[in-house]
Amino acid sequence: MIEREWTPGFVLDVHGVLVPLRRGRGDPSWRQDEGGIWRTSTTPDGPATVRIARRTDGTVVAQGWGPGAAWELDGLPALLGANDTPETFTAHHPLIEDSARRRPGLRFGATRRVWDQLVPAILEQKVTGTEARRSWRELARRFADPAPGPAPQGMRVPPTPAQLRSVPDWEWHKAGVDSARRRAILAAAAVAHRLEAAVELGGEDGRILLRKVPGIGVWTAAEVAQRAWGDPDAVSFGDFHIPTVVGWALVGRPLDDAGMLEVLEPYRPQRQRAVRLVEVSGFQRPRFGPRFSPRDYRAM
């Protein structure tokens, strides 16, 4: 085990920064207990488990296990949003202004690792969150390695490109992954080492690199960018819910992607920060119809 202490020079909501990395309550790569937040990752040096907690004096204490622990602890400030600049953000709507005031510690953290964010993002394409999270749990629990160190029971490292490339076709089906998402994951796995360069490129250039892979579009690239390099302008256009929520919150009616693009234009280059502040504001859009029902591809 290795340990690092770090004292941020800004208001920090550790849970608020890290929780976007959690893919559902049963995510095998993310846990929270009385000891802090646990997360696992693949790194250039191998798998790692990290536990992150905060002392009453504000100091963040991180402990790491596994071959990639040093790499992870090196990136602790970036993971917790040290490279983010929320102080340059200007709110243009009372709801967003109030949300920013109430959540001053909310920042965009950067994992510095594309692959770990890319697979669950692809799994979330055009399906309900329930379906996607179930598939992520199945793949991680059945084909990935156990978490290094004394991690909570059941924690796994995200499956590596090699591990997913070895999964037989029928096992994808059992995990509830349809052929389109499977093809996208396998295409990404074939060039995974090249895609890590997106972190260094950052911004739109990084998202363009990801979109060169068949099956990775604007939505998926944005979901990765928000987490891998903390991109505050990467809006998840193409999302089933976000335009409606943003529309009702900011203009009092549902929007499509084109309408949301127009409404968010004043927030460029921090449009996704505006979206996140809407999401955490507590605003609830009107409900008019039944929810989209999950499908079980394993029964097809």
From TrEMBL:
Keyword DNA damage in record: yes
Q: Which domain of life is it from?
A: Bacteria
> GO terms for biological process?
base-excision repair, AP site formation; DNA alkylation repair
Which GO MF terms does the UniProt record name? Answer: alkylated DNA binding; DNA-3-methyladenine glycosylase activity; DNA-7-methylguanine glycosylase activity
- Record key words, sorted: DNA damage, DNA repair
A single GO cellular-component term on record: cytoplasm
Tagged with keyword DNA repair: yes
**Gene3D superfamilies per the UniProt record, alphabetical:** Hypothetical protein, domain 2
Task: Provide the protein name.
Answer: 3-methyladenine DNA glycosylase/8-oxoguanine DNA glycosylase
What's the source species for this entry? Pseudonocardia oroxyli
